[in-house]
Structure formats: structure tokens, C-alpha cells
Amino acid sequence: MNILQRFASTANDIAIDLGTVNTVIYVRGKGIVLNEPSVIALETQNGVRRVKVVGDEAKLMMGKTPANIQALRPLRDGVIADIDIAEQMLKHFIDKALGGASRFRSRSNVVVCIPSSSTPVERRAIRDAATNAGAVNVQLIEEPLAAAIGAGLPVTEPRGAMVVDIGGGTTEVAVLSLSGIAYSNSVRIGGDKMDDMISSYIRRKHNMMIGEMTSERVKLTIGTAVPPDGDGMVMAVKGRDLVNGRPSEVQVSEAEVAEALAEPVGTIVSAVMAALEHTPPELSADIIDEGITLTGGGALLRRIDEAIAKRTGLQVTIADDPLICVAMGAGQAFEDRAYQGALMAA
User: Which carries the bigger pLDDT value, residue 75 or residue 2?
Assistant: First the structure.
């Protein structure tokens, strides 16, 4: 095989973190080349539905579309809810990651990250979506293992490491050793559920309906896992008054958002505690030294590390670039033979 053939066989190797909220793509030799919302906007004209925009542009349309346009998220709780729409979104993202050259898509070897708790049916849906999007060969890697690799944890060594990957749809808790998962626990709680709880709280407390984008903005601006002293920060939130139906604005405090997030944060902490209770003693001893590493977008919720550390008594560290750890880890499994055992046939 000459150098051009070798380049062609590897240049299109890609790793995909197909997330509920964001899709991140790693291309061999280039690193992370795409990080966009997992949103697709479809336009219906004369009874025919076609893709209008995908990713960042589609997210801006959510909650603001006319009757003939739908802005959809084809993944829910970490798995594909609508395989046809997911395929169209994936084709767009792969083409964009490969520089718009769709002819290269058919020669792509793809690794897709999956929740450790996904069922055979859910895994088959992910494989089919990637295959129908044009991939010639599809492999899978479990998200917590990919997250640990991307965070730089010593997963190939005979010592325990614990990772908590808080995504948009699921939170994966895993204890890893020797390139495998010794114990894992998954709860379908993540950033989406936090947004829902904020929306529900504002509806109950202030009689105001707010949209999905507004809930997320509140979470990112004043969201916290630990209640502040007093009210903390305050921000103006706009929506529709449920009493008179008119547009309205209220002031929401950091303390209120902490109260709204208490349930999902408590569920995540309980999942971590359950994993620790099921961890073999020798690995538990290692975790005392190594601590717990947080990855995923949910790791950016302020003071989430403090909430977990307080309950577990262990050191809790937030990974560098937690949003891209899963895709980085899957990509490194391509690049480094030491991690080849982490890949599974689809």
C-alpha cells in the first residue's frame, strides 16, 4: 500500500459523540472539528419535507418556527428517538466534519459513543443511523470509558478510576480498570431534566411559562448545585403570564434555581453513592487516592463537584474541556493501540 492509499484509508476515520444536546465529532489526525447542537430544522413545502438547517442555526429556531418548519431534536435520554431524522442530521454533520466532501463519507470508519445502559435495540438504531449516513465500518464505545480516556484517567492500568459523565439526557457513573468497566450505573437524568425542572418551578412559583432555550439560559447563568447564602445572584426571566396570557418578566434568584435543581442533583449524587457501594474493595482503595472525575456538559453546573464531594467524602475534579471528553476519548481509541480493547463491533 503506497502512502496515498494509507492516507485515504485513515483520513476519514471519525469518532462521534452523538449526544442528546450536542454532537461532537473527532477526525483522525485533526482532533475535534465539530461541536454543534443535536437539532435539525425541517421545512415542508407542497407536502414534501426537506432539511432546512442543522446544528447551531436550527437551535436558534427552536420555539420560534412558523407552521411549515419544525425544529426537532432526534435524540432523547441519550438514545435515538427518531432514526430517520437522526440519519439526516448525522449525514450533515459528517459531511461538514469532512469539509463538505460527501464523496468521502462512504469511505469513513466511524466510532460512535453509546450509553453503557443502552439496550441491544438502541445500539442497533445507532449503528443503523451511522451506516445509513454512509459509514463503511461502524464500531461502538461506551460513553463512560470514552470519557475516562478523554479525561486522561489511567484506564489501561490495574487500578481503579471513577468517572461521572453528566450529559444532556443521561448521567453515566462508572468504575474502570484495565481498559474495561468494573461497575457502571446510569440514570436518565442530565441537563435536559435540569432545564425541565427550572421551567416547572418558574411555572409553579411565578405563574409564568418559559421556553426550553430560556430554561437553559437560566441554568447556565445562575444555576448551582448548592444553595447560596441568601438569594444569591438574580436575573430577569421573560415568558408568558399564565393568568392573563400576556408577555411578562419576573426576577428569579440563584436560591430559587438551586431549589428547582435539588431533585436532579440529588439523583445524580445518589447514583454516585450506589456505584461506590457496589465497587470491589481493592478498587475502592484506589478511588480514595484517585478521587472522582466529572465530565460532560453537566459538570459545568456550578458547585456540582462540591455537592458530590460533600456526600462522598472524596476529592472531585472537573476534567479539562468536559464537553468534549467523550469524543476525544473515542478518537484516542482510534489513534492509540493501547485503547483498542475499548472498541466494540456494532
Answer: 75
